Amino acid sequence: MKKKVLAYNRVEKPVLDQLEKEFDVRFFKNIDVDKDPEFLEWLGEAEGIIGLALPVTKQLLDRAPNLKIVSNVSVGYDNLDISELTERNIIATNTPDILTDTVADTVFGLIISAARRIPELDNKVKSGNWTEPLGPEHYGIDVHHKTLGIIGMGKIGAAIAQRARFGFDMDIIYHSRRRKPEAEERFDAVYRDFDQLLGESDFVCLITPLTPETEGMIGKREFGLMKNTAIFINGSRGKTIIESDLIEALKKGEIAGCGLDVFEKEPMDLDNPLLGMKNAVTTPHIGSSTWETELAMSDLAAKNLRAGLAGEKPPTMINAEVWEDKG
Ligand SMILES: NC(=O)C1=CN([C@@H]2O[C@H](COP(=O)(O)OP(=O)(O)OC[C@H]3O[C@@H](n4cnc5c(N)ncnc54)[C@H](OP(=O)(O)O)[C@@H]3O)[C@@H](O)[C@H]2O)C=CC1
Ligand SMILES: O=CC(=O)O
């Protein structure tokens, strides 16, 4: 008998088609996790879960007695209760590395768009309001030769630094909990403590995981430390910042602008003040969403799932201790 797999938004179609040949797969899209009876029934029987951003909590696991693996189709895994999964000997996997360059491109797109006001000016042209040569009220600021501060010099942080250093001659400063000698050598990146970085950067770029330590790490105090010409970029998770404090800082001119791919609530409420702010450039959490990278992520997640269900070590495990216990 084929093993039961619960697939959850989002697994790319060619990968899902292949999984359906190997397993008894049921695909769910945007369901109400607590109430959908079909979802709960399938969860009760599934040995594997594959998908994006399904909140895997203790309560959900209590309803999944047969589960052996949760294969997340994302690198961030703040949606998973890892200690609870580990306690229950359930494998958790994610999709690191393959999305690094794509996400760095998105972040750099936000940096340039915010600095050069591209969405605002695009709107001016397309709305028929480009009726005369534009003056200083539409000028942007340079990106090249400025100082980029990266908070979270991990894989994506380093790929952003690479673009900034070699593409735009920027000076790189960074902050992580540990020093990163490789980034210092490759990009002449200079370590700064958190407050120093905020005060010195022309662009502050946040790209850490969401953890209890990083939740709300940028708020009123931190925006107050930034230059009033600074542009703040968030590619991490919405909850790493206090969004209402960002809105206030933009309104008061404490910072000049922002570029955001992630939000406290996704999708955003239609009354979110950011929607009406020209100096906030927004994208709908699409950091890794290119055809190539989405397919590669689904493919890696499927490899993880297959391995986990076959009793083999998945390529990109989060809780390796589960494997050590099994071995
Ligand atoms: N917008 C989007 O679509 C996407 C968003 N992301 C987000 O980007 C995050 C990073 O991904 P990736 O670069 O692959 O992950 P990595 O694990 O390679 O890098 C994360 C970095 O954050 C640093 N970090 C962790 N905690 C702190 C802290 N408290 N203060 C400062 N730095 C910290 C870590 O360094 P150290 O341990 O030394 O502190 C590490 O270098 C993901 O977790 C996800 O949330 C990822 C992909 C797409
Ligand atoms: O947000 C996306 C991820 O891969 O993490």
From TrEMBL:
EC class: oxidoreductase
Pfam families for the chain: 2-Hacid_dh, 2-Hacid_dh_C
Residues in D-isomer specific 2-hydroxyacid dehydrogenase NAD-binding domain copies: 108-287
InterPro entries named among the record's database cross-references: D-isomer_2-hydroxyacid_DH, D-isomer_2_OHA_DH_cat_dom, D-isomer_DH_CS, D-isomer_DH_CS1, D-isomer_DH_NAD-bd, NAD(P)-bd_dom_sf
UniProt keyword Oxidoreductase, yes or no: yes
Gene Ontology MF term list: oxidoreductase activity
Ranges that cross the membrane: none
Sequence ranges assigned to domain D-isomer specific 2-hydroxyacid dehydrogenase catalytic in this UniProt record: 5-319
Origin: domain of life: Bacteria
EC number of this enzyme: 1.1.1.-
Keyword vocabulary terms for this entry: Oxidoreductase
Any coiled-coil regions, as ranges: none
Keyword Coiled coil: no
Family: Belongs to the D-isomer specific 2-hydroxyacid dehydrogenase family.
Name under which the protein is recorded: 2-hydroxyacid dehydrogenase
Provenance organism: Virgibacillus sediminis
